[in-house]
Amino acid sequence: EVQLVESGGGSVQTGGSLTLSCSASGFTFGEMGWYRQGPNNVCEPVLFMNTGFTSYYGDSVKGRFTASQDNAKNTVYLHMNSLKPEDTANYYCSTAIVRTMTFPCEKYDGFGYWGQGTQVTVSS
After folding, report:
1. Cα dist. 25→28, 54, 85, 95 in Å?
2. For the chain, which ranges sit under pLDDT 70?
């Protein structure tokens, strides 16, 4: 059974850092994406990776977010620095690669496998 499980979310103050994890079972990571859905309820692509290399950064996170991959653990990580209140969202990892999104993340269920999400709250 294919499963993605995110963890590492929490509350942090502006300027702080968090690292999210996404562990996979039932398959090996190839191309994957991190997404988020904030109060506007529209899914936003954050970052895409392909075999451990980052291939895309969303404009709003460039220079602040990076990603890494641990193949032995079949886990990818989203390292978030200089966090801002507008980064507050539920963060998802997925095998879907979607660059233009206008709906909630759940509407893209058919594009790939998705985790359950982990909430990140950044307070000012």
Report:
1. 7, 21, 32, 12
2. none
